[in-house]
Design goal:
Layout lengths: L2 E3 L2 H9 L2 H12 L9 E2 L6 E5 L4 E8 L2 E9 L6
Parallel strand pairs: 1-5
Antiparallel strand pairs: 2-3, 3-4, 4-5
Length: 81
């Protein structure tokens, strides 16, 4: 199983958003441990994106060997430039 490194951004969302939102994000990202290539190919080289269809969030991550690095969590309406 691949390990996941939680970013400070995720921890901030988990602490400031309603519990159900944090749980959905946590559970979805935790699934990357078993299925690291679940997300679509990312906009930046070497990245992937996990889209949460029930939430307006996109998690950008990279897979390096047996480690999934969560790079950033974006709100879908956020300018990503």
């Amino acid at each position: 199983m691949t390990s996941i490194e939680w970013s400070s951004t995720f921890m901030k969302i988990a602490l400031t958003r309603p519990t159900n939102v944090a749980k959905i994000l946590y559970d979805g990202c935790a699934g990357l441990g078993s299925f690291p290539f679940l997300g679509r190919k990312g906009k930046l080289p070497g990245t992937r994106e996990l889209v949460f269809s029930k939430l307006p969030y996109i998690v950008v991550y990279e897979v390096q060997g047996e480690v999934v690095n969560l790079i950033r969590i974006y709100h879908a309406a956020q300018d990503r430039q």
